[in-house]
């Protein structure tokens, strides 16, 4: 009886997860850097309003995959991509898609905090300004405040909005970068090891933030920390040597993975 | 004692204690030696810099003062216009014997008889020929001055100037020097009376070139150099920055762009005289632009400065961290927006420094200007960049070729002016760099 209900609950959960609409779908995605092949026919779905964690040892292709989602790989010379990636059913590599518009819909937060060497206000206002999201100064002020609040930074910086963004601490800088990404109201936010340069306290704040942002945004996060993946994500994908090894609900992934390599990696036997 | 205990405490440890001080004294000695070499090299460089500056300044500082004679002069109608024909023939006022006015006034002051011809001749030689122009201009400006006695300041001749500054060796036999004992005596007499004195040499900055050293100035050269710098800045900065941005940010990396890069680096090392030949062939012979004009000089110096600016700008662009580019692109900025909103402002200090160093280089450039005819004798300040002109370094070159003692003083003075401009420009570069300090 007990076992039955547990199984039923699990099935229900799985069903629930499976009914979450797909935001981005990668199909047979392969990436080549010149002659070198970095990704091998990866099929990975990103679900709406879900945090998807990409894990795996260094050089496994998880960052490469992340960067294909907003075509940041376009800026690397000699990079070639095959397969299709769709955003709401549209192929983002279709020639009719404008890459500038795509990146406004799929924002990105980088490994190292990289605020512009401008004021905190200007950092957040830059995106809305170039995309024409605010009609006047008052609108822009509101948008900046909202974005900083969403990034949990407002209370810390509201009195010094016009001081340089590079003068903040590392954790504050990273939250500023998140506020900057949030300000253009993207649908998806990509995060490339956003906490790797932060201390544990700043990391905790950013993780908390990611957890909250989930209700409004679809988030894909690359991380080296198993605990972080377990804490913030609902879905986890494990990469190894350019292949997608396993994609599963995070709970299942960390308790009872389907693939032996995932088990080994999580247990710290390699990587 | 130690050796007795050690083996007992650990079996695997070698019996002799590990020596870590092998060669340590030699290492320190090598370091001291190297520091000494470095200091010696710096001292060597400083010594030569000091010698250079000392030789220039010690010879040149007197050029900023000029000996002047101030005394009342009677604009006698008998001398200027004996026939009283100036109403019908204005040429009379131009050709009048003005030096005579000066001579008579000086002779009177010194108590020399109007019939003592050899003495009068010596008196004439004490006043600069430029006095003729000074007096003529006064009469031309106000003809009613004729018949009146007015105090006038004129330049002393170059020889008296040199003698008054103590640059003429009086122990040399009188026949072997350019000022006679008689003239020296008069000079001292006039100086005691306050008629002859040293004043600040404004003529050095205002006058055009002259064959009389006391009247020669850098006015034309300064204006010419200013035109040159203006043209070089206006042309080479936008062209150089545009070329660098395209090459660095947009151009595909292929054989053609590699070739262009190699060529730019090579052009930066091409001797400047070759650019002069190019300017002569293209701008003067082919495009038929006027010779000796700052416009042509500016074009030639632009070509010469461009590689320097392009190399400096590309280095500055490359030094902007890729994370800034990624941040802007990741927000959906176009490549153009990324460059103009983020990359270029951060690269600005480097670009400006490179530009100013390129300009300073161009300011001191002589060889290409010689070939396009900017080495001419120009007495009138050019009103436009199409009129003949010279430039500071060319003027120095020309004066250095002159034989008179007074020209050598002016050569050093002109070098000091040029060095002052270079120092100002380099200070400007440093200040701009501080102002736009890298802030990431």
Automatic annotation (TrEMBL), chain A:
<dbReference type="InterPro" id="IPR017871">
    <property type="entry name" value="ABC_transporter-like_CS"/>
</dbReference>
<keyword id="KW-0813">Transport</keyword>
<keyword id="KW-0547">Nucleotide-binding</keyword>
<dbReference type="Pfam" id="PF00005">
    <property type="entry name" value="ABC_tran"/>
</dbReference>
<comment type="similarity">
    <text>Belongs to the ABC transporter superfamily.</text>
</comment>
<dbReference type="InterPro" id="IPR003593">
    <property type="entry name" value="AAA+_ATPase"/>
</dbReference>
<dbReference type="GO" id="GO:0016020">
    <property type="term" value="C:membrane"/>
</dbReference>
<dbReference type="InterPro" id="IPR005670">
    <property type="entry name" value="PstB-like"/>
</dbReference>
<feature type="domain" description="ABC transporter">
    <location>
        <begin position="24"/>
        <end position="266"/>
    </location>
</feature>
<keyword id="KW-0592">Phosphate transport</keyword>
<protein>
    <submittedName>
        <fullName>Phosphate ABC transporter ATP-binding protein (PhoT family)</fullName>
    </submittedName>
</protein>
<dbReference type="GO" id="GO:0005524">
    <property type="term" value="F:ATP binding"/>
</dbReference>
<dbReference type="InterPro" id="IPR027417">
    <property type="entry name" value="P-loop_NTPase"/>
</dbReference>
<dbReference type="GO" id="GO:0035435">
    <property type="term" value="P:phosphate ion transmembrane transport"/>
</dbReference>
<keyword id="KW-0067">ATP-binding</keyword>
<dbReference type="GO" id="GO:0016887">
    <property type="term" value="F:ATP hydrolysis activity"/>
</dbReference>
<dbReference type="InterPro" id="IPR003439">
    <property type="entry name" value="ABC_transporter-like_ATP-bd"/>
</dbReference>
<dbReference type="GO" id="GO:0005315">
    <property type="term" value="F:phosphate transmembrane transporter activity"/>
</dbReference>
UniProtKB/TrEMBL annotation, chain B:
<dbReference type="Pfam" id="PF11812">
    <property type="entry name" value="DUF3333"/>
</dbReference>
<dbReference type="Pfam" id="PF00528">
    <property type="entry name" value="BPD_transp_1"/>
</dbReference>
<keyword id="KW-1003">Cell membrane</keyword>
<feature type="transmembrane region" description="Helical">
    <location>
        <begin position="338"/>
        <end position="363"/>
    </location>
</feature>
<keyword id="KW-0472">Membrane</keyword>
<dbReference type="GO" id="GO:0035435">
    <property type="term" value="P:phosphate ion transmembrane transport"/>
</dbReference>
<keyword id="KW-0812">Transmembrane</keyword>
<dbReference type="GO" id="GO:0005886">
    <property type="term" value="C:plasma membrane"/>
</dbReference>
<keyword id="KW-0813">Transport</keyword>
<feature type="transmembrane region" description="Helical">
    <location>
        <begin position="267"/>
        <end position="289"/>
    </location>
</feature>
<dbReference type="InterPro" id="IPR005672">
    <property type="entry name" value="Phosphate_PstA"/>
</dbReference>
<protein>
    <recommendedName>
        <fullName>Phosphate transport system permease protein PstA</fullName>
    </recommendedName>
</protein>
<feature type="domain" description="ABC transmembrane type-1">
    <location>
        <begin position="222"/>
        <end position="428"/>
    </location>
</feature>
<feature type="transmembrane region" description="Helical">
    <location>
        <begin position="226"/>
        <end position="247"/>
    </location>
</feature>
<dbReference type="InterPro" id="IPR000515">
    <property type="entry name" value="MetI-like"/>
</dbReference>
<dbReference type="GO" id="GO:0005315">
    <property type="term" value="F:phosphate transmembrane transporter activity"/>
</dbReference>
<feature type="transmembrane region" description="Helical">
    <location>
        <begin position="295"/>
        <end position="317"/>
    </location>
</feature>
<feature type="transmembrane region" description="Helical">
    <location>
        <begin position="413"/>
        <end position="432"/>
    </location>
</feature>
<dbReference type="InterPro" id="IPR035906">
    <property type="entry name" value="MetI-like_sf"/>
</dbReference>
<keyword id="KW-1133">Transmembrane helix</keyword>
<dbReference type="InterPro" id="IPR024573">
    <property type="entry name" value="DUF3333"/>
</dbReference>
<feature type="transmembrane region" description="Helical">
    <location>
        <begin position="34"/>
        <end position="57"/>
    </location>
</feature>
């Amino acid at each position: 009886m007990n076992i039955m209900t547990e199984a039923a609950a699990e099935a229900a959960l799985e069903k629930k997860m499976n009914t979450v609409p797909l935001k981005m779908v990668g199909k047979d995605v392969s990436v080549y850097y010149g002659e070198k092949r970095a990704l091998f026919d990866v099929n990975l779905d990103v679900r709406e309003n879900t945090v998807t964690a990409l894990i795996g040892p260094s050089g496994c292709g998880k960052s490469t995959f992340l960067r294909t989602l907003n075509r940041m790989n376009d800026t690397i010379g000699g990079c070639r991509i095959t397969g299709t990636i769709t955003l709401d059913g549209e192929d983002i590599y279709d020639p009719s898609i404008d890459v500038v518009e795509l990146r406004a819909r799929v924002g990105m937060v980088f490994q190292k905090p990289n605020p512009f060497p401008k004021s905190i206000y200007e950092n957040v206002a830059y995106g809305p300004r170039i995309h024409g999201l605010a009609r006047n100064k008052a609108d822009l002020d509101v948008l900046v405040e909202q974005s900083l609040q969403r990034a949990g930074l407002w209370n810390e910086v509201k009195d010094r909005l016009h001081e340089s963004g590079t003068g903040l601490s590392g954790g504050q800088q990273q939250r500023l970068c998140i506020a900057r990404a949030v300000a253009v109201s993207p649908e998806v936010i990509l995060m490339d090891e956003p906490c790797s340069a932060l201390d544990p306290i700043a990391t905790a704040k950013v993780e908390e933030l990611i957890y909250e942002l989930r209700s409004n945004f679809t988030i894909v996060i690359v991380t080296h920390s198993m605990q972080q993946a377990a804490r913030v994500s609902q879905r986890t994908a494990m990469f190894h040597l350019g292949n997608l090894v396993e994609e599963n609900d995070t709970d299942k992934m960390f308790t009872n993975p389907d693939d032996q390599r995932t088990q080994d990696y999580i247990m710290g036997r390699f990587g | 004692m130690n050796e007795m205990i050690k083996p007992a405490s650990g079996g695997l440890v070698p019996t002799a204690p590990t020596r870590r001080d092998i060669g340590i004294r030699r290492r320190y000695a090598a370091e001291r030696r190297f520091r000494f070499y470095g200091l010696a090299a710096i001292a060597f460089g400083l010594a030569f810099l000091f010698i250079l500056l000392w030789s220039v300044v010690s010879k040149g500082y007197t050029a900023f003062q000029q000996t002047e004679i101030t005394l009342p002069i009677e604009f006698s109608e008998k001398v200027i216009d004996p026939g009283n024909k100036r109403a019908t023939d204005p040429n009379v006022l131009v050709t009048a014997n003005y030096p005579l006015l000066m001579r008579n006034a000086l002779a009177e002051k010194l108590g020399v008889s109007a019939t003592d011809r050899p003495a009068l001749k010596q008196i004439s030689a004490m006043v600069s020929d430029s006095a003729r122009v000074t007096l003529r201009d006064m009469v031309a400006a106000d003809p009613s001055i004729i018949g009146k006695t007015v105090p006038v300041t004129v330049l002393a001749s170059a020889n008296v100037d040199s003698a008054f500054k103590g640059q003429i060796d009086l122990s040399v036999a009188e026949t072997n020097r350019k000022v006679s004992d008689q003239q020296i005596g008069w000079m001292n007499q006039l100086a005691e009376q306050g008629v002859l004195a040293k004043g600040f040499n404004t003529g050095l900055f205002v006058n055009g070139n002259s064959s009389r050293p006391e009247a020669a100035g850098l006015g034309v050269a300064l204006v010419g150099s200013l035109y040159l710098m203006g043209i070089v800045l206006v042309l080479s900065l936008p062209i150089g920055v545009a070329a660098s941005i395209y090459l660095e940010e947009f151009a595909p990396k292929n054989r053609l762009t590699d070739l262009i890069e190699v060529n730019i680096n090579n052009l930066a090392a091409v001797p400047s005289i070759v650019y002069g030949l190019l300017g002569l062939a293209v701008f003067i012979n082919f495009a038929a632009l006027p010779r000796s004009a700052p416009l042509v000089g500016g074009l030639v110096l632009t070509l010469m400065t461009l590689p320097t600016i392009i190399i400096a700008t590309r280095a500055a662009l490359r030094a902007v961290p890729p994370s800034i580019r990624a941040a802007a692109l990741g927000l959906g900025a176009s490549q153009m927006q990324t460059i103009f909103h983020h990359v270029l402002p951060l690269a600005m200090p480097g670009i400006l420094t490179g530009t100013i160093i390129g300009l300073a280089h161009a300011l001191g450039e002589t060889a290409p200007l010689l070939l396009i005819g900017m080495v001419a004798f120009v007495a009138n300040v050019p009103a436009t960049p199409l009129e003949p002109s010279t430039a500071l370094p060319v003027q120095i070159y020309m004066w250095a070729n002159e034989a008179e003692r007074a020209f050598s003083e002016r050569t050093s003075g002109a070098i000091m002016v040029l060095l002052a401009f270079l120092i100002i420009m380099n200070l400007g570069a440093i200040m701009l760099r501080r102002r736009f300090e890298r802030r990431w």
